[in-house]
Specification:
The protein is mainly beta. The protein folds into two domains: 129 residues, no CATH class; 62 residues. The protein contains one helix and 19 strands. Strands 1, 2, 3, 4, 5, 6, 7, 8, 9, 10, 11, 12 and 13 form a 13-stranded mixed sheet that branches. Strands 14-15-16-17 form a four-stranded antiparallel sheet, with no helix packed on it. The termini are far apart.
Length: 197
């Protein structure tokens, strides 16, 4: 038990030292078994639990948390992947964020990008601040007269979450229905679109 506690204390000390150190010097490189902190000059693969690259970086980042403060090109694979500026390549994780233009594939539960020029976000919720698709639609059918649908993503690929309600249903468990789907908006002419859902 004492040995395990010593190891946890040592890991916390290394993380604390690395975090304090990055605030004082952007040039110092910390490359350990638990955390990697590198500056822009060190484009080396970062493959541990926490990876932080300050400035621009173009080598893969594989870990639980991957963060890049500048432009990033390559692959980020982890639970949380963030890029502070433009992103080229791929982000695969539970939460993926790009602070600039994303020319990348984002696959995750939640994806965020400031703008997407040629990439595609694929996930439960994909938010693109500038140029993305954000729509709330109302529809009706003979089974459920009240349907609300939320669409997020880009026109090339979006996800939709649907909640439907039947006020006339006699069985309470069948009055509410929920669903999820994917879709795309394909433009043929200025006034003609194909929208497969």
């Amino acid at each position: 038990m004492k040995h395990g506690l010593f190891i946890v204390k040592r890991i916390c000390f290394i993380i604390l030292f690395a975090m304090v150190d990055i605030g004082f010097s952007q040039e110092r490189v910390v490359y350990t078994f638990f955390i990697n902190l590198v500056s822009e000059e060190f484009n080396i693969p970062l493959i541990v639990f926490v990876n932080v690259a300050t400035g621009n970086h173009s080598a893969p980042q594989i870990g639980f948390v991957n963060q890049n403060t500048g432009n990033f090109s390559g692959s980020q694979i982890g639970f949380v992947n963030t890029s502070g500026a433009d992103t080229r390549g791929s982000q695969i994780g539970f939460v993926n964020t790009s602070g600039g233009d994303a020319k990348s594939l984002q696959i995750g539960f939640v994806n965020y990008a400031d703008s997407i020029e040629s990439g595609v976000p694929i996930g439960f919720i994909s938010i693109v601040k500038r140029g993305g698709l954000k729509a709330v639609e109302y529809s009706f059918s003979e089974f459920y007269p009240f349907n609300i649908e939320l669409k997020t993503g880009v026109k090339k690929f979006y996800t939709n979450i649907i909640v439907a309600y039947d006020t006339f249903g006699k069985i309470a468990s069948k009055q509410v229905a929920m669903g999820m789907g994917i879709g795309s908006i394909i433009r043929y002419t200025i006034a003609c679109f194909l929208i497969p859902n």
